Amino acid sequence: MSSSYISSLNDASKQITIYVGIPTLIAGVLGGLLNTIVFLSLRTFRESPCAFYLTIMSIVNVGQMITGLLARILTSGFNIDWSLTSLFYCKFRLYCFQ
């Protein structure tokens, strides 16, 4: 494999990360927030134990999208590494992604 081929694959990987990751992040966060609003606003959902778990799951999913996918987009697409700039993120990133 030539170095130009590897370089073009790296560039394609960055472009895919940016152009697929950002809409996925926006749709995921928006969908999770809308799920949370629906589960918290309707009375029938507030009285159901299952809806409580779905609400918590939606909140956790939004958090995972922000910490996981946003970090991946910034690191792979824009060469911004949070682990070098944030001591908190560096220490707790393993807990956030699991």
UniProtKB/TrEMBL annotation:
UniProt KW keywords: Membrane, Transmembrane, Transmembrane helix
TM region(s), chain numbering: 16-40, 52-74
The protein's name: Uncharacterized protein
Species this chain originates from: Adineta steineri
